[in-house]
């Protein structure tokens, strides 16, 4: 069990950092003796979970990790069901669209459609962001009561930009507003210069997934957030009928 736990810690660190690390750096970050870690990395490399650079001294994720991640998405009913909605939103607005899932205190991108514009939000499938700092995350946190939200988040909350809401009372007031109007807005709280609007996907209660559309501030019309919110409601409303179909699907663990 200890070896399995260490192997998972290696994969999680490499996935989070998205870069290669030397043996010493990994050993210090994980608190694992170099001798033990070296043997573990050799085993993981032999199985394709870890790869090395040409020098053999720096380690990163291997192709096996990609295969397993792709299998997760391929087998997920929601990702398949919502693909058409993402396509229609991207076609209507020409902006970046994401499907995200709540995972503890974070939200993870499961699918995306790229903006047609050169100036756009950078993102990647599998990227994990603090839920409190994104429209996707706020839309999903609002599905829970205040006590549950407090237990889900890690306090104090990190600030990603000068606009990120980190105060507990302010965040709860924001989530109450999300519940009232039915959608969440992130006004440069995750990325400077980007506004995102998100709505929870009504395939289960509480919802675990949400769809967002991200627009640079320079392209957002005065009524842009409201127009996006209306389109999200219009396109996700039919998904309520899919709830029985998806009742048994698994969610991302926190």
Q: TL;DR of this structure?
A:
This protein has 254 residues and is an alpha+beta fold. The protein contains nine helices and nine strands.
Please provide a written account of the structure:
- With 254 residues, this protein is of the alpha+beta class.
- It has helices spanning 2-17, 23-30, 34-46, 63-74, 77-93, 135-141, 146-152, 168-181, 224-236; strands spanning 21-22, 50-52, 58-61, 96-103, 106-113, 128-130, 184-187, 194-200, 209-216.
- The strands form 2 sheets. The chain has a 6-stranded antiparallel β-sheet, with helices on both faces. A 3-stranded antiparallel β-sheet has the order 1-3-2.
- It is globular, with a radius of gyration of 20 Å.
- It starts with a helix and ends in an 18-residue tail after the last helix.
- The model is unreliable at 247-251 (pLDDT under 50).
Kindly list the characteristics that best describe this protein.
254 residues; alpha+beta; Arc Repressor Mutant, subunit A; Beta-Lactamase; 2 domains; 6-stranded antiparallel β-sheet; 3-stranded antiparallel β-sheet; 9 strands
Average pLDDT works out at 91
Major sheet description: 6 strands, antiparallel
Task: Give the end-to-end Cα distance, rounded to a whole number of Å.
Answer: 20 Å
Please report the total strand number as a whole number: 9
Radius of gyration: 20 Å
Give the count of structural domains. Answer: 2
The poorly predicted ranges are 247-251
Share of helical residues: 40-55%
As for the CATH topology of the largest domain, it is Beta-Lactamase
CATH first level of the largest domain: Alpha Beta
Order of helices and strands: HEHHEEHHEEEHHHEEEH
- Sheet with most strands: strand arrangement: 6-5-4-9-8-7
**Helix vs. strand class:** alpha+beta
CATH architecture of the largest domain: 2-Layer Sandwich
The CATH H-level superfamily of the largest domain is GAF domain
Net shape: globular
- Tally of individual helices: 9
Strand content: 15-25%
